[in-house]
TrEMBL record:
Transmembrane segments: none annotated. This is Threonine synthase-like 2. Residues 2-81 form the Threonine synthase N-terminal domain. Keywords: Lyase, Pyridoxal phosphate. The lineage of its organism: Eukaryota, Metazoa, Cnidaria, Anthozoa, Hexacorallia. Signal peptide: none annotated. PANTHER family: THREONINE SYNTHASE FAMILY MEMBER, THREONINE SYNTHASE-LIKE 2.
Length: 479
């Protein structure tokens, strides 16, 4: 398995290189050069596997055994998921005539846990062998930060720097990030939006010499291994709801950075008949791109109840362009240069047509989100987080239509316990969760990046300070 940047100018020599890479030096994102096709016989075999077993099978297609042996991969995956709070790791609920895939049984109650526990374990595996340190940079609008911290917080070999937009993540999300006091965790709140804080991070990675010198890596869904792990969600849910392998299943995906949508399109390329619906909030750049072929920034990022989806520039869009263009690197490079110059790009009509054969989209307002949460609770006694509600709202609108004759899965990306403010705004009474009560009793530790300050310089100063200190692994107490 070989990897190449979406813009075609940079190759990665190994899975390990891809694991520790953020943006490629040409500004693109790493992807496999060829997509493995899985035949029906293998799909039938996979259908009977547990989530853990399926994870091992899918990941083994993308991880060369010379780098991580089958035995080591088995052990790493078992260890990664050993502390999940649900016996089956994830579950599927039936609501009306559609399904809800519950991806929130990890430590931080969000779908990011499923991918990041593996990514953190793989990083530790390679770093320990080489006795080498790395600094992970994360920009987050909510759940990614806490899941990333949880996956590496006690690593002897990894420091993590997390930037989040102050006031745009909710109380639990902020506390999950700012109440961790392990010495390898460094958290900054920033004024502005998620897109604002992505800029200094991308500047660090785009400075290839600086990134290499300081051993920088990423754990956002710019990291290929995040996408690789999310493939399993699509495969697993498909097998749970299809009548026969070969039937079409529709996935309605709450969409932020387009990680799950990228995974879904990859799964389609691998041979699984799936349809994808990108469900977005008022920050609707994806919906406008799919509907009109124009990928264009709005003037402002709207603040909504589904905070993790308050994104203006979903970076995985260029992975969708590459997959939809049949791996036309030159075209993707040209389109992304157009976007970087003009904050807008127009897809060629044939490219848009290819994308729309698999992907459609819908936009859901804040009012619709809260109304869906309330209706789902009143009619089914099933509580949704505001992100999941964006997806369910789309299914809700279609529940009496022929479109839902196709088995339909809504991705539940987080537990409603993480969003008590939204639950209350929807008119639903919910007692304070034990998780939030615990966080409120812990001390916070967080630095600030204010408007008008040089965030690039501040981030690099923190990286430089960590690099000077880290000449050997950290030691943690047994507590």
């Amino acid at each position: 398995m070989k990897y190449r940047s979406t813009r075609g100018k940079v190759e990665a020599t190994s899975f390990e290189d891809v694991l520790f890479s953020g943006y490629a030096s040409d500004g693109g994102l790493f992807m496999p050069e060829s997509i493995p096709v899985v035949d029906k016989a293998i799909l039938e075999k996979w259908r009977g596997l547990s989530y853990l077993e399926l994870t091992k099978e899918v990941m083994s297609l993308f991880i060369p055994s010379e780098e991580i042996s089958t035995e080591d991969l088995n052990d790493l995956i078992n260890k990664a998921f050993s502390e999940f709070g649900h016996r089956d790791l994830l579950s599927i609920a039936k609501v009306n005539n559609f399904h809800v895939l519950e991806l929130f049984h990890g430590k931080t109650l969000a779908f990011k846990d499923y991918a990041l526990v593996s990514v953190g374990m793989f990083m530790d595996f390679f770093l320990k062998k080489k006795k080498k340190n790395t600094i992970v940079l994360v920009g987050t609008s909510g759940d990614t930060g806490s899941a990333a911290i949880e996956s590496v917080r006690r690593s002897e070999w990894i420091d993590i720097i997390v930037l989040f937009p102050k006031g745009r993540a909710n109380q639990m999300q902020e506390l999950q990030m700012t109440t961790v006091t392990d010495s390898n965790v460094h958290v900054f709140s920033t004024e502005g939006t998620s897109d604002d804080l992505d800029k200094p991070i991308k500047n660090c990675f785009s400075d290839h010499e600086y990134a290499e010198t300081n051993h920088l890596s990423s754990i956002n869904s710019i990291n290929w291994c995040r996408i690789m792990a999310q493939l399993v969600h699509i495969f697993y849910a498909y097998f749970q709801v299809c009548q026969e392998v070969g039937d079409t299943v529709k996935f309605i995906i709450p969409t932020g950075a387009l990680g799950h949508c990228t995974a879904g399109l990859l799964v389609h390329k691998m041979g699984l008949p799936v349809e994808l619906v990108c469900a977005v909030n008022e920050n609707d750049i994806v919906h406008r791109a799919v509907s009109t072929g124009v990928f264009s920034m709005s003037e402002v990022v709207q603040q909504t109840w589904s905070t993790a989806m308050d994104i203006q520039v979903p970076y995985n869009f260029e992975r969708l362009l590459l997959l939809s263009s049949d791996m036309n690197y030159a075209l993707v490079d040209s389109l992304m240069q157009e976007f970087e110059q003009n904050n807008s790009l127009k897809m060629p009509e044939d490219l848009r047509n290819k994308m729309s054969k698999v992907i459609s989209s819908a936009s859901v307002s804040c009012d619709q989100t809260l109304q869906t949460m309330k209706e789902c609770w009143d009619e089914n006694q099933y509580l949704l987080c505001p992100h999941t509600a964006v997806a369910v709202a789309v299914a809700w609108d279609q529940r009496h239509l022929s479109e839902l004759k196709t088995p339909t899965v809504c991705m539940a990306t987080a537990s409603p316990a993480k969003f008590p403010e939204a639950v209350k705004a929807a008119g639903i009474e919910m007692p304070m969760s034990p998780q939030l009560a615990q966080l409120l009793t812990r001390s916070t530790r967080c630095k600030e990046m204010k408007a008008g300050e040089d965030w690039d310089q501040m981030l690099r100063a923190t990286i430089d300070e960590i690099s000077k200190k880290r000449s050997k692994p950290l030691k943690f107490s047994s507590a």
